[in-house]
Design brief:
This protein has about 160 residues and is mostly helical. Helices cover about 60% and strands about 5% of the residues. The protein has one domain: Up-down Bundle (Four Helix Bundle (Hemerythrin (Met), subunit A)), CATH 1.20.120.
Amino acid sequence: MFTSAALLDIHTRTHASLGKLIGHCAGFSADELSRTFDGFGGGPIRMQLHHAIGAEQYWVGVIRGLMLVEERPEDFASIEALHAYRRQVAQDTTDYLRGASESELNTSRKMTTFGGRQHELMPARIIVRTQTHIFQHQGQVAAMARLLGRPIPHGLDFPLG
């Protein structure tokens, strides 16, 4: 059984790491942030970051019965915009988790996803998925940063302390 407190802890640690990664990416030029690399699905660095954040926004929206699928170019126009977008989405998830009971989090229910598809889903598992998904894209960004000659510093994985 998942608790709100445990999910909040995971979420806070994940977003601390993501915020540091976005900060590291501020050292890249606009061209570097928009450069594509063969073998990397999901586009350039700035789109990898935007997708990771946007997926959390989408899935927390699904939990809340909302269909948040609009991609707003201003959310990924710059590193500052990505920082702001991350903070806004993180706060929305935090607000949801602070108000969710253990029963709400751990009880599967019908939810509607893109295209009007219905699925039996458990909110807690959705939250965990959004956080692991962020680290998947952090790995993509880390590899791209290395290819651009500016590897990410140690310690941007899931913080233990």
